[in-house]
Design brief:
globular, two-stranded parallel ribbon, Rossmann fold, 253 residues
Length: 253
């Protein structure tokens, strides 16, 4: 129970990495505020947490709900900024300004809004830990065809983490990033690919491009375990650091 007595906010907690993280943090003793836009998914995650003996607040809608979590529990110690989209992947001359703006708004502005709302509560608690969920795209690899807007947001998130590591360090708040590669979530189902073959440099890896798993993608729980480490006392001297969780995929690419 590494996180007993702690209160954690997890955005995008209804599915994938967010859900796995919310469940794991609750299993380790944290009271979790599960924030997202799908009430059904959030309620399902909350039931799983409750069945394991944990506690969860379902926070449907946006980061304005952070105040509700703090009002109920009296503090906030941990923030996992996970909510995001792949958006539209298309050649730059086909990617519309509206499509660009949507990806920037959800991924980059959304991360800003989460931190803007949460940091005052972390400061009031005397410190805390933040993890931003980025990607290998835009930080370690640049080979995903058409993913210019997405990669730009992930590069921007990492820049925010490194900038804020110094700013927030004075308040005893640590901030780090996890940068997953291919993970078996449903985010690809929501990716709009359009003529990406025009932007692709074709490369074939006969044995797959993830060496440590013979080409198989990682699991959401692999990322959740890394997040648990970064918000736990075990990482108390780590801040401003990206942790790539890709089974070596980014090095091969």
């Amino acid at each position: 129970m590494q996180l007993a007595g702690r209160v954690a906010l997890v955005t995008g907690a209804g599915s994938g990495i967010g859900r796995a993280t919310a469940i794991l943090l609750a299993q380790q003793g944290a009271v979790v505020g599960a924030l997202g836009r799908s009430a059904g998914e959030l309620e399902a995650a909350a039931r799983e947490i409750a069945a394991a003996g944990g506690r969860c607040h379902v926070l449907e809608a946006d980061v304005s709900r952070v105040a509700r979590l703090v009002a109920a529990e009296g503090r906030l110690d941990i923030v996992v900024a996970n909510a995001g989209i792949n958006g539209v992947w298309a050649p730059i001359d086909e990617l519309t300004p509206e499509e660009w703006d949507e990806t920037i708004a959800v991924n980059l502005r959304g991360t800003y809004l989460t931190l803007h709302a949460a940091v005052p509560h972390l400061k009031k608690a005397g410190g805390g830990a933040i993890v931003v969920v980025g990607s290998i795209n835009g930080t370690r690899t640049f080979t995903t065809p058409g993913a210019t807007a997405y990669s730009a947001t992930k590069a921007g998130q990492l820049a925010m983490v490194q900038q804020l590591a110094l700013e927030l360090g004075k308040a005893h708040i640590r901030i780090n990033a996890v940068c997953p590669g291919a993970i078996d979530t449903n985010i690809d189902d929501n990716t709009d690919r359009r003529h990406t073959d025009e932007a692709e440099i074709p490369v074939v890896w006969p044995q797959g491009d993830i060496p440590i798993t013979d080409g198989a993608p990682g699991h959401a729980r692999d990322v959740a375990a890394a997040i648990l480490f970064l918000v736990s006392p075990a990482s108390r001297h780590i801040t401003g650091t990206p942790l790539w969780i890709d089974g070596g995929q980014g090095l091969l690419r």
